[in-house]
Amino acid sequence: MVLFQGMPLFAADSSTEQQNLNQGLRAYQNKNYPLAWRYLMPLAENGNMEAQRRIGIMYRHGLGVAKDDSEAVKWYRKAASQGHVLAQNSLGIMYRFGMGVPRDPTEGAKWLLAAAEQGYAKSQENIGLVYLDGDGVEQNEELAAKWLKQAALQGQMRAQLTLGLLTLAGRGVEQNQAEGMAWIERAADRGSQQAALALAKAYEQGLYGKPKDAQQAKYWYERAGQPLQ
Questions:
Q1: Alpha-carbon distances of 67 from 55, 59, 72, 91, 100, rounded to whole Å
Q2: How many angstroms separate the CA atoms of 118 and 64, rounded?
Q3: Is the same domain home to 24 and 111?
Q4: Which residue has the higher pLDDT, 86 or 4?
Q5: Count of CA atoms in the C-beta half-sphere (13 A) of 104
Q6: I need a labelling partner for 127 at 20 to 30 A (CA). Which of 7, 38, 50, 165 fits?
Q7: What is the dihedral of CA 128, 129, 135, 136, to 10 degrees?
Q8: Over 80: is that where the pLDDT of 147 sits?
Q9: 46-97, pLDDT tens digit by residue?
């Protein structure tokens, strides 16, 4: 009987934690960072990974607290270690560029890969670029193309452009002009000026299977922010 009487207490504790998290996130979204801190910090200290990530963001960007990248890394790591995919990506970036910690591209790649394997598109793009550059990992264009394609399929603009360029050159994937230009066009449609410039030059000069087309060249030069005179 005592056991059953105790069960509602645990449910109430869980419910209270969720309510406090919701209150903290609402205050965060409303940019009331002092109030968000009051709700989120106790939860973060108690192991709530979403609260830990938000505290990390607040330290990273100085939201209601003095900016402190080392504290941001500390809280990102706590959340990332519990599998929080966005925290894993943020922690990977911090290590890759040496923000709040000494630069450690190998550690950065580890966390980016962890997030990529969970399906997070931005991390898939990031780890693809890491493999392409060989920054913290052995350079591997096939793995770069693999991860960039997964990110590109989820609409990541830089991944689409980079995958298109790799496909045109046959680096890491089979060379295919039509497919390469298709990826570049998708990136251009999403707003990549670099991709738009590549399309403009292709239409202007009749490259990569594109016909010479002055109107298309003019259109894409304008999209690239370089209108023809």
A1: 11, 5, 9, 16, 11
A2: 31
A3: yes
A4: 86
A5: 13
A6: 50
A7: -30
A8: yes
A9: 999 999 999 999 999 999 999 999 999 999 999 999 999 999 999 999 999 9
What is d(CA 82, CA 9) in angstroms, rounded to the nearest whole number?
25
Is 132 within the bounds of a domain?
no
Q: Which of 135, 162, 137, 134 is nearest to 150 (CA)?
A: 162
Calculate the alpha carbon distances from 99 to 96, 106, 133, 225 in Å: 8, 14, 20, 33
**For position 25, which CATH number holds?**
1.25.40.10
Same domain, 113 and 154: no
Question: Is 57 part of a structural domain of the chain?
Answer: yes
**Chain centre distance of CA 196:** 22
The burial of 166, by beta-carbon neighbours within 10 Å (0-12 exposed, 13-18 middle, 19 or more buried), is given as buried
- Tell me the residue range of the domain where 98 lies: 16-118
Report the number of distinct structural domains present in the chain.
2
Q: Is 179 part of any domain?
A: yes
User: In Å, how far are 78, 91, 95, 139, 143 from 107, measured between CA atoms?
Assistant: 15, 9, 6, 16, 18
Residue 14: per-residue pLDDT? 75
Pair 225, 156 in one domain: yes
Whole-angstrom distance, CA of residue 89 vs CA of residue 119:
11
Co-location of 165 and 104 in the same domain:
no
